[in-house]
Every structure is written in C-alpha cells, then in structure tokens.
Design goal:
The protein is α+β, with helices and mostly antiparallel strands. It has one domain: Gcn5-related N-acetyltransferase (GNAT) (Aminopeptidase). The protein has helices at 17-29, 36-41, 45-55, 87-90, 92-106, 110-120, 151-165, 180-188, 200-206, and strands at 7-11, 69-74, 77-86, 135-142, 170-176, 192-198, 210-217. Helix 1 (17-29) crosses helix 3. The radius of gyration is 17 Å and the shape is globular.
C-alpha cells in the first residue's frame, strides 16, 4: 500500500507536459463524457491531447501553461495536478493568445476555429466573474487509480500557499453541478458556495445544468 511518504508535490516541468494536457482535458470534462476542448478541437482524444500538449508549452503563458501547474507524484508517477493564477494576468486573454500561437503552428484555419467555437461556445453561459485579485484554482484532475488518497487536498494546500505569497486574500474554485465528489473535496479544504449559474444551452450541449463557484479566505 502506498504511504504518504511516497507522495511529492512538485512544480511542473516540460517533462510533465503530457500529464498537464491530460489534466486540462479531464478537468474540463469534469464528470461528463466531453468537455470544452473535446467540442472545440473535435476529432479523437489523441488529437485533443496533442493540441493541449502544444498549448501547454506556448511562448505566451496562460492558465493552461505547464509552468502554472503543481503535480502530485506517487512513487515518481504523476498522479494529480492543478494550477493557480490571477485572472487579470493569465486568464482568457492570455489563453486566446496562446491558442493563436498553436492554431498558426498546426495550420488550423479561421474556418476550423469558427466551427470549433460554434461547437463549444455554450460554455459562455456559465462563465462567472472573479473578485479582483482573487487567486483562481483551476484544472483539477486525478488519475483514477490514485483517487481517495488526499492528493487534491495536498495540492490545494500548496496552490493556496502560492496565492498567499502572491498577495491574494481570497481564492475561487469552480465545479460543474453534478460533480459532488469534487465539491465535497473543495468544501473540506474550506471553500464555500458563493454563486450558482445555470444555463439551458450549456445543459443541452454538455449535459450539466451549470456551474458553481466556491470561495475561501486566504
């Protein structure tokens, strides 16, 4: 049986990029069959992962970039990951710039981009604003074989500490409605529900009624 001494929390490096891509894909899926990147990129899971691997290593740093992630390793094996950031620094604008780099590299045409956005844009129905200078915890995922070992709690502790060091006074984390295990894990770490947003089009496309934002003081 793996003990707590076998677990290390490390800052992601380029060697973790394939794992970071998996974390981003699975975090966007949550408890559902498909997430935003599945709809946006289309194609096979391997194609989605390849795109996210490229996206994780762009010149433009953004909230899907490997350098923002912390990884829990069990016996040297990447097991869980998440990132933290200030939205006004590395949020959607930065993500769009990073995606533009990869679209150009991969030859993704304006038509491809438009079709991808048409497939995935129901996500906009559940977007919520964060408080100014809130530390945003995002892209949380654990490999199935490493769940129920407290890895998310340890990662959250480390990620929140980074937020404190950066001067954040509050932290936000989101969860799709229906992902009760994730919400319970976040509440165990001191987060409390502050906003719930439901959207019929999002539910039609993705399969969840909407999303919740949880918040805690730092």
């Amino acid at each position: 049986m793996t003990t707590a001494t076998d677990v290390r929390i490390v800052k992601a490096t380029r060697e973790h990029i394939p794992f970071v891509a998996w974390v981003v894909m699975m975090a966007n899926r949550s408890h559902l069959p498909k997430g935003m990147w599945d709809f946006n990129i289309g194609g096979t899971e391997e194609e989605v992962l390849r795109y996210l691997e490229l996206l994780a290593d762009t010149q433009q740093v953004h909230w899907g970039h490997y350098s923002l992630f912390k990884v829990a390793e069990v016996d040297g094996v990447p097991a869980a990951g998440m990132c933290g950031f200030f939205e006004n620094e590395l949020g959607p604008v930065s993500m769009m710039a990073g995606a533009a780099e990869i679209n150009q590299k991969t030859g993704r045409t304006p038509e491809d981009i438009a079709k991808g956005w048409e497939r995935s844009n129901a996500i906009m129905g559940i977007i919520m604003e964060h408080e100014p200078r809130a530390w945003v915890v995002e892209h949380v995922a654990t490999k199935p074989e490493f769940r129920r070992r407290g890895l998310v709690e340890r990662l959250i502790h480390e990620t929140l500490e980074t937020g404190r060091e950066r001067g954040a006074k509050t932290a936000d984390i989101g969860v799709l409605i229906g992902n009760d295990p994730a919400q319970r894990a976040y509440e165990k770490c001191g987060f409390e529900l502050v906003i719930e947003k439901r959207d019929a089009e999002f539910e039609r496309v993705y399969g969840s009624p909407g999303a919740r934002m949880l918040r805690r003081a730092l």
